[in-house]
Prior knowledge:
The structure is a single chain. The protein has 12 helices and 15 strands. It is of the alpha/beta class. It has a 7-stranded mixed β-sheet with strand order 4-10-9-8-7-5-6, with helices on both faces. The longest helix is centred in the last third of the chain and has 20 residues, at about 310-330. It is globular. The two termini are about 30 Å apart.
Amino acid sequence: MPDWLTLYYDRPLEITHGEGRHVWDADGNRYLDFFGGILTTMTAHALPEVTKAVSEQAGRIIHSSTLYLNRPMVELAERIATLSGIPDARVFFTTSGTEANDTALMLATAYRASNQILAMRNSYHGRSFSTVSITGNRGWSPTSLSPLQTLYVHGGVRDRGPYAHLGDEAFIAACVADLEDLLGHTRAPAALIAEPVQGVGGFTAPPDGLYAAFREVLDRHGILWISDEVQTGWGRTGEHFWGWQAHAASGPPDLLTFAKGIGNGMSIGGVVARADIMNCLDTNSISTFGGSPVTMAAGLANLSYLLEHDLQGNARRVGGLLIERLRGIGAGVAAVREVRGRGLMIGVELVKPGTDEASPERAAAVLEAAREGGLLIGKGGGHNTSVLRIAPPLSLTVAEAEQGAAILEQALRGV
């Protein structure tokens, strides 16, 4: 394996099996999972409805490619198109969020005949050649070579940067003015791509309404809006089914990308776009593995479970309790700068006590200490990886939330 393949923990963890919100390692240790394989195990580990759907479909046929009709793919596409909020929507399935964003960039640049892209500072959109080139996070973008010309916009980070001191309304106005000024210095870009809540960037977000205000500017210039919902989709934020709905005053995005949680661990990504955008390509295309019968069966079962059990509502209720519990803990720990988030997408930012300086060393130490206590979490952040990322399966119970908070409190106080 390559040297750059990142592993968590000083003693890397081999996860062998899971059930509900728990996983076990090769040594038999049991952990409460508050990261879900990077926000991917969305409903629960070993969810019977999903494993049954996968097993039954695998017993019929595993693979055929998009060259042949595939009923589960069509059914899932219809459901996602309806849920997306995009009028006259079309859906194309991929195998990952990286590939979904790569496809959205291809569609936008072809539709607009422009290779310029607007992206947000502190953003992350994948690891392909095109997506690293629009990633505004130095730690995850290994090259400046790119087929695209990327221009970075203010606004993705609320509490750091030149506008952090402003109130929400003034913050939005300043970011819109910055966008207007930027567009006065360049040829017309193809699209703005933005995560409603930045994932790898440390679960940071702008005030509600920023992207609606951006949309008014974009529409005047004919620029498309791509909402990267790879981490925010499917109700994780509790308040909304999609992250873009916190910015809905100017309507839905032109394109929406998704992945991670919809497959509950199976490799599913995709793009939703208006028909005129999706159909703008003038060449043939297929996907060998995107939309495979097995992954589509898993996606259908997982989405049905999510909706039937109101896991979005559970994320709102249990996530709200967990955020308040963590804020109470953070108030008594000098190294905690901020606890932020929505639903079950929560970030705990760590600094050197008495300063505003990020402390990636503390984040790494808390990650280790939480593991020793039986809790798995993630980490991220912008210039420094100093934010603990908490994103459990959306079926998390109140008792499990309290247990995880207690373990994290002990880890924070110990470090």
